[in-house]
C-alpha cells in the first residue's frame, strides 16, 4: 500500500470519479469530476480505468507528502504545482519520492487539476460511486461527503502499471477560443426572437456565484414567452433560464428536477471546458444538433484507445 499525507487542503478539494448513475429517481444527483476529460486523462496516464477515483483540486491550496516512493499522474489546470519547490507541469505521470511534498498554489491556466494514483485512490462506494457530493453527504474518503482535510491519508494498493506519455496534440486546450456547443432543448422555440438572437450572438460572463451545482451566465436578459412549466428531470449541462432572464448552466451536483424553461444542454465536451473557467471569463454559445454532438463525443472517446 502507498500513502499520501494531506498537509493542506480547502473545501474545494474533493475525491471524485465518474459519478453516480441510475439513482436520480431517488433524488440523488450524479456528482463526479466536473472536467471529465482531465479526470480520464489523469487515469489514462497510469494505465487505469478511466473512471477510477482521483483528487479534484480546485483553485489550489492543496499539498500532500509521500509516505513511500510512488508514481502519480496530473492532468487538467496548471495550478502552479511544485515538487519540493520545483515546477511540475500537468499532463504527465511523475515519481514522488518518500518525504517529498507536492503542492498546488494558484491558478495559472484553468481552474481544476486532477491527481491520479495507480488503481485509483481507496474509498468506499456509496450507491456505486466514491464521488463526493457535500450537499448530500455522500462519497469521499469516509463515504460521508466530506471534503479532503488536512491530516487525512490518501492510500492506494495497485502496483504501478506501465506509465504513458501524452502527446501535445491530445492535451485539451483550456482556453476558451471557440464557442461552447449547446444541444437545443424542448423550450427553445418559446423564447422571443430577440432572445434567440442574443443567446448565440452575445458574450456571456461567468458570475462569481458558481459552484459544482451550477454557473450563472451574465448578459442580456432572455425573455421566455411560454406557459409555466411542471418540474421535470434535469440533465447534466442543462441551461435553465429563471425569471430574471440570466441563464444558469447546471453541473454535476445539480438538483434532479426543475421547473424553469431550458435553452437546451451543453455537450459533455463543452462542459469539460466550462469547468476550467474562472469567474469573470467570457463565453459564447453555439447551437448544435444532437447527432453532431454525439459523433464528436464518440470520436473524442476513441482518443483514449491510444497506447
Write a concise keyword list for the protein shown above.
Cyclophilin, 307 residues, 2 domains, alpha+beta, nucleotide-binding, six-stranded antiparallel sheet, eight-stranded mixed sheet
Question: Could you characterize what this model shows?
Answer:
With 307 residues, the chain is of the alpha+beta class. The protein folds into two domains: 169 residues, no CATH class; 126 residues, Cyclophilin-like (Cyclophilin, Beta Barrel), CATH 2.40.100. Helices cover 12% and strands 30% of the residues. The chain contains four helices and 21 strands. Strands 20-13-14-17-16-19-12-21 form an eight-stranded mixed beta sheet. A six-stranded antiparallel beta sheet has the order 7-6-9-4-1-11, with no helix packed on it. The protein has a five-stranded antiparallel beta sheet with strand order 2-3-10-5-8. A hairpin with a 3-residue loop joins strand 13 and strand 14. The longest helix is centred in the last third of the chain and has 12 residues. The two termini are 26 Å apart. The model has no long low-confidence stretch (mean pLDDT 94).
Amino acid at each position: 500500500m502507498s500513502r499520501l499525507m494531506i498537509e493542506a487542503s480547502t473545501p474545494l478539494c474533493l475525491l471524485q470519479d465518474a459519478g453516480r448513475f441510475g439513482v436520480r429517481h431517488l433524488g440523488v444527483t450524479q456528482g463526479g469530476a466536473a472536467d471529465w476529460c482531465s479526470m480520464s486523462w489523469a487515469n489514462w496516464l497510469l494505465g487505469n480505468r478511466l473512471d477510477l477515483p482521483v483528487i479534484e483540486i480546485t483553485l489550489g491550496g492543496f499539498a500532500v507528502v509521500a509516505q513511500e516512493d510512488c508514481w502519480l499522474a496530473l492532468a487538467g489546470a496548471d495550478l502552479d504545482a511544485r515538487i519540493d519547490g520545483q515546477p511540475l507541469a500537468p499532463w504527465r505521470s511523475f515519481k514522488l519520492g518518500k518525504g517529498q511534498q507536492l503542492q498546488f498554489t494558484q491558478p495559472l491556466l484553468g481552474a481544476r487539476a486532477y491527481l491520479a494514483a495507480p488503481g485509483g485512490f481507496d474509498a468506499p462506494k456509496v450507491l456505486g460511486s466514491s464521488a463526493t457530493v457535500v450537499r448530500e453527504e455522500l462519497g469521499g474518503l469516509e463515504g460521508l461527503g466530506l471534503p479532503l482535510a488536512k491530516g487525512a491519508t490518501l492510500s492506494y494498493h495497485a502496483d504501478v502499471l506501465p506509465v504513458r506519455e501524452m502527446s501535445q496534440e491530445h492535451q485539451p486546450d483550456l482556453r476558451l477560443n471557440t464557442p461552447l456547443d449547446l444541444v437545443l432543448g424542448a423550450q427553445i422555440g418559446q423564447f422571443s426572437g430577440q432572445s434567440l438572437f442574443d443567446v448565440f450572438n452575445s458574450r456571456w460572463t461567468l458570475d462569481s456565484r458558481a459552484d459544482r451545482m451550477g454557473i450563472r451566465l451574465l448578459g442580456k436578459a432572455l425573455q421566455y414567452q411560454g406557459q409555466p412549466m411542471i418540474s421535470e428531470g434535469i440533465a447534466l449541462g442543462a441551461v435553465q433560464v429563471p425569471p430574471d432572464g440570466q441563464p444558469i448552466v447546471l453541473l454535476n451536483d445539480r438538483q434532479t428536477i426543475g421547473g424553469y424553461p431550458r435553452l437546451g444542454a451543453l455537450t459533455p465536451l463543452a462542459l469539460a471546458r466550462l469547468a476550467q473557467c474562472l469567474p469573470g471569463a467570457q463565453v459564447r454559445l453555439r447551437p448544435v444538433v444532437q447527432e453532431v454532438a454525439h459523433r464528436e463525443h464518440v470520436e473524442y472517446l476513441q482518443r483514449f484507445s491510444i497506447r
